[in-house]
Amino acid sequence: MTDTTANNPNDPAGPWAIPVRRPLPGDDKPKSTTSFPRKVWNLLVAIKDGLALIFLLLFFVTLFGLLAGRPNAGLPVSEGALLIELDGIVSEQPAEIDPFAALSGGNNLKEVRVRDVVHALESAADDSRVTSVVLDLDRFLGGGQVSLAEIGDAIDKVRAKKKPVLAFATAYTTDSYQIASHASEVWADPIGGVAIAGPGGSRLYYKGLMDRLGVTANIYRVGTFKSAVEPYLRADQSPEAEAANLAYAGALWEQWLADVKKARPTAKIDPFIADTGAAVRAAGNDLGKASLDAGLVDKLGSRMAFASRVAEISGTYDDSQPWNYNAIPLENWVAANPPKQPGSAIAVVPVVGEIVDGEAPNGVAGGETVAQHILDAAADDSIKAIVLRVDSPGGSVLASEQIRQALLAAKAKKLPVVVSMANVAASGGYWISTPADRIFAEPDTITGSIGVFGILPSFEQTLAKVGVTTDGIATTPLSGQPDILGGVNAEFNALAQASVEDIYARFTGLVAKSRKQPLAKVEEIAEGRVWAGGTARQIGLVDQFGGLPDAIAAAAKLARVDGEVHAKYFENEPSEFSKMLAKWTGAEQPEESAALPRGWFGIAAMNRQLVERRVIQDLALLTEAGSVQASCLDCRAYLPAVPRPGKAEAKGFLATLALLLR
Predict the structure, then answer these.
(1) Which CATH number does the domain housing residue 354 bear?
(2) pLDDT of 654 strictly over 50
């Protein structure tokens, strides 16, 4: 086709017009002028700009969260009532919250640090800004008996300064009443009251279930009283275990009664506990009235009536709401009043929770983590001595030995080492105490349990039930052992038992050397038997009674430090980012307020959940006890059944065996 536009004499542009091609079929479709590489580049630039914008936004959100998420060091009122809400449990070292686990539905109990409560009470005693103390125990789920006694002693210091202390709960249990008994006014809701259970209860035994499933529990242990493994070997407790349990539970119960009776000498505690049912029937089936008649509580009233009473003492925040009293929350008070640090520094290294191999977050005593804290303290020129604060039922022998070796390294630098036992310092918790120059405990500390065990299940009978068998070859007696599918042979059993017996001999030898006692005497009090602190002092396992302040003072004396001293803690601190995420995700308050237990039945329901957690711990022992254990599993019944952060992998002779089960 010829384009004649340029030669058209009638064209206004004349002969100099630029030729224009006539449209062809298909020319109406749009065509891109951008090449494919250019498109890819533009996409990458857009992604980069988007990510930069997101990270910039996250930076400012994080900055805001860090500033807003910290406890306010400024007090909400110039003076008022120190409000101590013990929702959840009290702990020597609260577990670090995993906010991402909380986002996925993790269910953690809130934990309040004991030393924060004690410091707040002691500092409030002499501070004019605090006109009263309020103990909100409505959702308190308990803690170790030593921790509760320490809080009670701090309350007594407040009352000694003539400041009123008021406690409130819908229903009081054994733990919550131990604290409440120290208050000047104990209030209970009219639909609640006091019901004291005391130590004790049943434990599950899995022998029948394991026989039905065909699971063989290969147990390697030393110690007549090492009852930790009895649930996998028996359908009930052995007479030896029953005698030992009754002995230390009875000692703890006597200490509880002595503490409460001293705090409330006029209360009719013995007859009320002996026959609570009769007391309730005499009060017309009203538990609250029965508690009031027995003098266990001072007043019955609703939460609003209680708050109005506090307002009478400490003033109202809003005059139009007479129940809205001036409150200073515990977190604000602690942030505004950090502990003073006069004089020389004494290192305090907490060992809290199960002792496991490797590193571990707060709430679990990782062997590498704790050992490094000890070595850091030893390398600090400002440290004059080390106090090991133990609140642990034990765990891995290898991790316990790693901690002990770190203490020996500190002692090689001429640093005195003192152990302060809290609620529990048993088995591996006692192993790590052996290097101490002096051991402090309380009469209601649980300690001892000098014994070891290993456990490995095999499933040859389980497979046989479904028609599966195993066969193979062996070049040595240990070829393919331990065969968890075909069965563990006699040679492996002998080797495993010999390993456990060797470690037990090392354990008793360490105790004999550190306690300066004949080995024969140590063997008499060992064999895995658990002792209460009072008895432990009589038989020489601890040196004297006293709490952490006493241990710090003794460490300073051993270090020949004149003048004042202060505690310098060596432990992991949760990151500010972790705290912020925990606050935003609700991990700090994992249970909604409406779901937290209140009243007798609510607390009973929560206790059922805690029992379920112990069942999970028992069953996990079959697959997670991958190394020889110096652990007092019976002692867990005297600590809250708190889900702890993930544990590090075990190492050693039996370590790889557990991995085979996963």
Answers:
(1) 3.90.226.10
(2) no
Q: What is the spatial distance between Cα 415 and Cα 437, in angstroms, rounded to a whole number?
A: 10
- Mean pLDDT over 116-137 rounds to 97
Domains in the chain: how many in total? 1
Of 212-216, 380-384, 467-471, 638-642, which has the strongest mean pLDDT? 380-384
Higher pLDDT, 32 or 183: 183
In-domain check, residue 583 = yes
Active site includes 593?
no
Q: Which residues pair with 91 in a beta bridge?
A: 113
Domain extent at residue 534: 344-587+621-660
* Residue 445 domain flag: yes
Q: Which of 427, 499, 627, 631 is catalytic?
A: 427
Phi then psi for 596, rounded to 5 degrees? -65, 145
Active-site option among 110, 226, 289, 647: 226
**Average pLDDT over every residue of 156-177:** 97
pLDDT at position 243, please?
Answer: 87
Q: How many angstroms separate the CA atoms of 100 and 293, rounded? A: 49
Q: Nearest 10 degrees: CA dihedral of 585, 587, 592, 593? A: -120
Residue 427 annotated as catalytic: yes
Does 335 map to a domain?
no
Its pTM stands at: 0.83
Please classify residue 147 by burial: count the beta carbons closer than 10 Å to its beta carbon, then call 0-12 exposed, 13-18 middle and 19+ buried. Answer: buried
